[in-house]
Structure formats: structure tokens, C-alpha cells
Amino acid sequence: EKDGALERRFQPIIVDQPSQEDTIRILYGLKSKFEEFHNVEYKPEAIEKAVTLSERYITERNLPDKAIDVIDEAGSLVKLRAYQLPPDLRDIEEKIKEIEEKKEEAASEQDYEKAARLRDEELRLRAKLESLKAKWKQEMAANRPKVTEEDVAEVVARWTGIPVKRIHENDMEKLLHIEEELHKRVIGQDDAIKAVARAIRRSRVGLKGRHRPIGVFLFLGPTGVGKTETAKALAEYLFGSEEALVRFDMSEYMEKHTVSRLVGAPPGYVGYEEGGQLTEKVRRRPYSVLLFDEIEKAHPDVFNIFLQIFDDGRLTDAMGRTVDFANTIIIMTSNLGARLIAHGSQMGFEKKFGMIDYEQMKKNVLDQVKKSFSPEFLNRLDEVIVYRPLEKEDVVKILELQLEQVNRSLHEWNVKVRLHKSFVDWIIDREYKPEYGARSLKRALQHHVEDLLAEELLKGTLADVELVEIRVKEDKPYIKPVKKKEKLEAIFNQ
């Protein structure tokens, strides 16, 4: 304070956030008031769950405030759900409305005898309704609806956007099956998936700093081999949705002044009150996967910010708010590996499928990484993962996955599509480019399959067909209809 005389007349008292155990005791003290107000009953498990879930998922607020709001809203939710009128009472209310309309109609037609009869019927029904309502309220008061753990989880899910199933699911069970889930979407990268899963499990069991991010990874390798798909799969499996993936293109942060875009503009500059792009996104969605594309293009000052996040798991934005990164997975990608592989191809060391020496390529890539990044940056990473170029069997599986997406899109047309072996071999030989990875296949499927299907669907030629097969004849793909009565076989007809 500028006024020292005023300052010494006050004694500062620092009020820290209470522990989870203290918060539970506070909630038990407030429990009766909320039960009386909402006319519900809180189970002990619901009280404890409100504290643990709010502390885990609502990071921008403090205890006991956030836990109190959770049980308040959970009580309101249960009350609204439970205190809806029974169907028989709603039927009586509808009848009363009908009688009121008929009574007004009779009065307007000057049929007063009919209006009087309808009035008596209305009074009788209203008396019956009031009697039944009073009885129903007594029964509800005697048997208050209970607020359970599921209700608390639903409230937290609404606040955070994380699905209830993910909030309520056993974390340990989920962590044991990471490889299995990632393999459904990421093909041919066993080493990468195992390394990611091991690092995440280590973190969750508490074998490293409590405040550090869940995992910090550097993905290397050619384009189109599954680096971004791994990040998407992690976001969906661990945090419930691909929307939990926050992506940054680091080519936009090549200049020194762009650092302020991540943490917010300094006081007095335009955009000060808007916050930083990185800090705001993590503050609003603390459970997320952060993907930094082409990390080698970022300015050195950006790396200084990353060092703090990797070490302490927190970052202070321009407005002085501390943002917690402890519940994020940080993935950085680099195309350093792609350049070396392209160079190997020019020198004749690379075939369409299969590197002659993957281990040598990996060593070359890692040597390049050590030259491009500082030791203090590399030492803070959990894993540096080099993705393998795709083999032919991987490409076939990726085609199958992409075809499943096409079939999901065709659901409303009641048509399914499969690929004949002749087409699979033809599209791989003709369209697959190792330097573009699986992305070249996606474009090829759009051109050779989706365009053909769209044309035939609009013509109406597939109206009586349940299954079609894409074949090749004279170096040109065509659609062969299969009638409904024919048995559906596997997507790939060998």
C-alpha cells in the first residue's frame, strides 16, 4: 500500500483453499439446508464424489466453492426430474383445459345451461386434482428422491463438456487398454503406441512430478504415417472427444513478438483482456491434448515458455492468472524425419514399401534432432518417437478403415460398398506415394470411389441395391452392383 499509516492498521490474513477432507466436512454441514431447499436426500457417496470430481475436473475454481455449486445443481437436477406430475394428474389437467374451452364456447353461443354443467364438471375435477396433488406431495415428502454419484457426475460433465461415461469410468482400467484402443485407429506403428502408453501410465501412477503434464512427446517421421491420428485417438479415448485436441501450427509463431499470442498481450497493448491463445484454451478445457505441428519452426523464445510448462506444468498469462497444464498431454510433431527419408529416396535407399534399414534411418533422424533442438529441451521430453514408413499390409488396413467411414456416410442411402482385390492392388500401385503417406490414399478414394458412388446415387441406379463392389477393368474402376438377396461378405473380397 502507498499509505503506510493505513497499511499498518490492518493485519493481512491469508485464507488458503481447504483440503478435500475439510471440504467434505463443510458439505456435510450444509447438507441439511440443501436437502430442505430442494426436498431431496444426498447420499454420502454423492457428497464425496462432488469434492473429488470438482477438484479433478474444475481447475479454474477453488474448494469449497465449486463443490458447493456442484451439489446445489445436482439437487436441483434431481428435483426437476423427480417432481414431474404423474400421468394421471396431467390427464386431469388436460381435461380441465378442454372443459374451460367448451365452457367459453357455450357462453359465447348463449347456451348457459351447458355452460353451467361444464362449470360444475370443472369444479369437480379441480377438487379431485387438488386432492390427488396433496396426496402425491405427501408421498414425495415421505420418500424424498436421492442424489447419487451419477447425478453429480452428470453436473460435472455439463460444466466441463467431458462425457459422463468418461468421468465415471475407472481411470486405471482405461489406462490398461490404451494400446488396444490406439491400434484401432493408428496402423503399423506398434513401437510408437507402446512408448506413448508406457509414458502415460508412468505419469498416472505418480512416478514423476505431480504437477508435470501427463506426457510430453516429440513425434518424428514422414507425413501421413499416423502422427496426428495418434493425437486424435488419444484425445477421444482419454478425454471423451476429438474436440479435446487443441492444435497449433508453429509456422505462425516464427517471430519473436508472436510469443505474446500464446500467453496474452502485455498491459496497455491491443488484445490485453482477451488472454493468450494457449493459456485460454487450456484454462477453459484443462483436460486436453495439445498438438504443436512443425515445432522446429517456432521462435527460440517460444521454446523458453515450453520449458516452463514441461517442468512445472503451469504457466502465468499476461493477466496474472496461473494456468494448470497437469492434466494435458503435449505432442509436438516435426518433419525433420520426412526430409531425411526424401533424401534417402533420391539416393536410392528407399523402396515403395519397406525401408532397407529402418534403424539406420531412425538413428539419422535422432542425430538431426539433437542438432536442431537444445539439450535442455530434449531432456524434458518423455519420449522422442520416430514413426515407421508404412508397409503394404498397413496400407491395406488403412484403406479398410477409410472405407468404413465411406460406408457410415452411405448409411442413409441404405447402400454398402466393398473393394475387390483387383481394385485394392490397382489403387496402391497407382496412387500410393510414400512421401505423402496415407493422405494420398484418402484423396484417391475420394476420386475413384466417392465420385463414382455420388454419380450413381444421384442417377438412382442403386435404388434396389444393398451392396456394391468396386472393381477395375482395362485400368479403369467401375461399380458392380450386388443384389439384396446376395449374402454380405467381408469388405475386402479376396
Would you kindly provide a written description of the structure presented here, covering whatever features stand out?
The protein is α/β, with parallel strands linked by helices. It has four domains: 84 residues, Helicase, Ruva Protein, domain 3; 56 residues, DNA Excision Repair, Uvrb, Chain A; 217 residues, P-loop containing nucleotide triphosphate hydrolases (Rossmann fold, 3-Layer(aba) Sandwich); 102 residues, Helicase, Ruva Protein, domain 3. The chain is built from 21 helices and 13 strands. The strands form four sheets. A five-stranded parallel sheet has the order 4-5-8-3-9, sandwiched between helices. Helix 3 packs across helix 4. The protein is flat, with a radius of gyration of 32 Å. It starts with a helix and ends with a strand. 29% of the residues are buried. About 1% of the residues have low confidence.
Q: What is the typical, i.e. mean, pLDDT?
A: 80
- Fourth CATH level, the homologous superfamily of the largest domain: P-loop containing nucleotide triphosphate hydrolases
Helix content: 55-70%
Query: Distance N terminus to C terminus?
Result: 81 Å
Reading side by side through the largest sheet, how are the strands ordered?
4-5-8-3-9
Shape: flat
CATH class type of the largest domain: Alpha Beta
Please indicate the percent range of residues in DSSP E strands (runs of 2 or more).
5-15%
How many independent structural domains?
A: 4
CATH fold-level assignment of the largest domain: Rossmann fold
Q: What's the story with the biggest beta sheet?
A: 5 strands, parallel
What is the C-alpha radius of gyration, as a whole number of Å? 32 Å
